[in-house]
Amino acid sequence: MKKNTPAVCVFCGSLPGKNPKYTETARRLGTLIGEQGYRLVFGAGAVGLMGEVARAAQAAHAPVTGIIPRFLRSHEPPLETAEKLIFTTHMQERKQRMLHLADAFVLLPGGIGTLDEFFEVVVEGQLHVHKKPIVLINQDNFYVPLIKLLDHIVAEGFAHGNINALYHLATDADEAMDIVSTALSAGEASAAEDILQD
User: Fold this and answer.
1) How many angstroms separate the CA atoms of 143 and 107, rounded?
2) I need a surface site. Which of 7, 13, 133, 185 has the fewest CB within 10 A?
3) Three-state DSSP class for 65?
4) Do the bridges between strand 39-42 and strand 134-137 make them parallel or antiparallel, or are there none, so unpaired?
5) Mean pLDDT per 10-residue run, the chain (198 residues)?
6) Residue 24: its pLDDT value, please?
7) How open is the CA angle 34-46-6, to the nearest 5 degrees?
């Protein structure tokens, strides 16, 4: 696969969660990434939803790049079969490498780390650092509380405009990848270095 093949970065939990559908959706997403000819960029973990999406992508012949801080290796073992593993010095560098390598971002359910990654790419999208599509897979309404919080932030005057316009909502992996494909073919993605010029 060519190096300029678009990359989908998946943010998700290092735990599987209680709902078996989360694992099913992670596997489906990984499969679609491979079948549709994309590369996968992810947090490198071999466990939880991270491991599920990566192994499914590999099975569908997607090149897989994992990015993980060195100090996290003992707590979150990396997927050693990934085509490429990038070790960073800290979490911020990890997120910046993901932002740089990805052409689109898809979020499965996850914990605090997943939310941290979501806000990182949303804020940088709001500041016009990038124009890359961000898709939340709202599996069984998992992200409804987050969406309500964002609406509340706007209603209380702590954000301008419609924050929700910065990302897309999907009900499942198939819809998420349809959104990604449409956005990329329309040229929605742009280089991470495309910094807002005042």
Assistant:
1) 10
2) 185
3) strand
4) unpaired
5) 82 98 99 98 98 99 98 91 97 97 99 98 95 98 97 92 90 99 80 32
6) 99
7) 30
* Residue 56 CA, distance from chain mean position: 15
pTM metric for this prediction: 0.92
Amino acid at the residue 74? S
Which own/partner contact pairs does 69-77 have at CB distance under 8 Å and 24+ positions apart? 69/93, 69/94, 76/14, 76/43, 76/44, 76/45, 76/47, 77/45, 77/46, 77/47
Instruction: Assess contact for 128 and 196: CB atoms under 8 A.
Output: yes
Strand ranges of the sheet holding 84-88, from the earlier edge strand across to the other edge? 84-88, 64-69, 39-42, 7-11, 104-107, 134-137, 168-170
Q: Please tell me the predicted confidence (pLDDT) of residue 188.
A: 62
Closest listed residue to residue 138, CA positions, set 183, 168, 99: 168
The span from the CA of 81 to the CA of 86, in Å, is 13
Domains of the chain in sequence order: 7-185 (3.40.50.450)
Give strand pairing partners of 85: 66
Three-class SS of residue 4?
A: coil
pLDDT of residue 194: 36
Distance in angstroms (rounded) separating the CA atoms of residues 20 and 100: 32
